Amino acid sequence: MDNLWLWDSCLIVGTIFFAIGIFMFVINRGKKEIAFVKMSLCELIAAYFLIFPDVYLHDGSSTLLMLLKCFLLTLLNVLKIFSGNGYDEIVIEGHPTLNIVYILVLGLVNLCIMIALIGFILQFLGDFIEDTVFYSNRFSKVYIFSGVNERTISIARSVQENEKNKGKKYSIIFVDESSSDDSKKTVREMGAHYTNESFCKEIGRFIRKTKEIDIFIFGDSEEDNLTKLGKFTALDLAGDIAFTRVYVELTDTPWYIYGNFVKNNRLPKDKVTVNLVNSNESFVLNDLYEHSVFDNARLSDKESIIDVLIAGISNKSIEMVKALLALGQMPGYMLKITVLDDKGKKDVFRRIIPELKERSDEFGEAVYSFECIDDIDSDTDKLEKIITEKCPEFTFAFIATDDNVQNINLGLRIRTLRSRLNKGNDYRIRICVNNSELISNWIPELRSNVELVGGIGNIYDYRFLTMSKIEQASKLIHDIRQNDMLKKDPEHDVVSWEDYSNDEFKRHSVYARTLSLKYKIEVIRNRGLDIDVIKTDKTWETYEHMRWNMYMRSLGYVLSDKTGVDYGSLKGNDRLIAQVHNCLIPFEDLPQEEKDKDSIKLTEDVVKAFGSVK
After folding, report:
1. pTM of the model as a whole
2. Residue 440 pLDDT more than 70?
3. 577, part of any domain
């Protein structure tokens, strides 16, 4: 009992280190490797002090050897947990008076050391174990994302929403060789898989063991995206592979210059499709598919006016103008566009659409008015004065500067002015902003007629980027037309939608036509007419040519100069590169074979096709 002070002191110190070990684990649990290491060290020190009195009192060795033996016995005592009675010589007699407390603390210390060691090992083997289990699964569909960034995370979340309740086994994989720990954590928190393997290696793992693969190449730059696309095309894709769709974001280069990318790169066209994506264009077309700008058109004596106000010149607003110029070519409607900006960027429209006019009244070619005022000082009341003078009864406003807060403030001012002018309540204001919380506290009356769009979640949405609804409708209509041709000519060589749409120009052209056809059906129904009016009233053919005229012009095409190149001598890719076309003329001036191309094949089956799109 003379050495009771030693037992008590070591018990107290050991208990303190035991508690410190638990505390260190708790505060570092977000970084598990560090947490396990710190807890192990603290608990080993605790175990050392708990064993020290017994070794000290019963060992006759020198102090240095005794300390070393004590440390080794501490480790062996821990190992005894794993080996049963494999180390029988290790017998700790325990505290002379507080043996129950002593045994309890020592047991807890040993348990903590065991947990820390197992956790530490599993943490380092975790990725290996996770990968082994993951790659042993067979998925019906795999989504592979190149890079972890705000855009790919947004797309992946929308994929999860889209797959919800389908009952199919799918997987989302992020491939990034240089991602941060926070990015990895985000990926795992959303239930996706992360790997730092090479992009092509990850594709190779699944290309032959799953049914479908969707690949999204949405990196930090267009150059990076095209480089990865080039590596993908170099893969050996012969034999039985999954049906693979590749979506590649282009931020600067027009998609049409790539033509039939699949054919040019000898990819198996029956198994692989490559879609080059302009995210802002996809957003605008899908938004117009869901929300018709014709709904709020203003009635006049002769026609309905689609009075559009665009605030701000940005990539989104440019794509909106391009889409509206084509969609606005509709019997009984007149499109009026007013663009306001304070950056002096008026010429950007002329550069993109060289033959854009301030007013076109030529029936058969195009009918619209366009005005761009780019010297608006938003800090003055000039904005209100211009709107009051130019478009006080606008039916649709699209606010899309490159600044979220400015968009909100412009939306508020325009909404207030529209109410002040008391020109009716039949209008919509769509404000492009990333954060919907910016207007969540507005009074309800202010939020009426106002919608927030164009945020990351809207633009980088799986359904929008893949043109899901427009794609479905386009495919259904394509199949209907191919079947009709086959009925008329049993020897007709049927072209699958996958083969046809692998040409970038054709695919985008069909998307635009499908969107216009949906609008035509809605206009016919709203007028209480039968769809056969398309066949009996040739005005519809004229307007279809007008739509095509403005669609081509929105891509930058101009009418061929008769003294220079012409349609007969410049065809195919040469014509595409020069962006000229002889058919950008009034409908009546077209040769009959070209007029026949403007016939609109609208049947009940086509109408049903739109109704079946989900």
Report:
1. 0.78
2. no
3. no
